[in-house]
Write a structure and sequence with these properties.
Elements: H1 2-11, H2 16-45, H3 47-66, H4 85-89, H5 91-97
Length: about 100
């Protein structure tokens, strides 16, 4: 979702801050809703079934990504390189990262 928001922010830079605020502001609301639902469902279905339900979502995402069902633009092999010039210019930050 954050990547889609970043892509849309490039298309409409004047609305980028509003879009980022909407994305990050809706995250806690979704968390509160999911915690409320899981807290009421847990005593009914039990912890094993709840773990199965919670583990199903990441498993679905993994399967979809492995099968490449999500549309994405691949970067050509020639353009894939790691740019370490930032760390070479800022050695103190590189030391903190290590």
């Amino acid at each position: 979702i954050d990547a889609a928001a970043a892509k849309l922010s490039k298309e409409a830079p004047d609305r980028a801050s509003d879009l980022q605020s909407l994305v990050w502001g809706s995250l806690p609301i979704g968390i509160m809703i999911s915690v409320s639902i899981s807290a009421t469902v847990l005593p009914v279905v039990g912890p094993k079934w709840m773990l199965f339900c919670v583990a199903t979502c990441p498993l679905c995402i993994l399967i979809v990504s492995i099968l490449r069902w999500l549309p994405e633009q691949r970067v050509p092999q020639q353009r894939r390189r790691v740019d370490l010039s930032f760390f070479q210019e800022n050695t103190s930050i590189a030391a903190l990262a290590a």
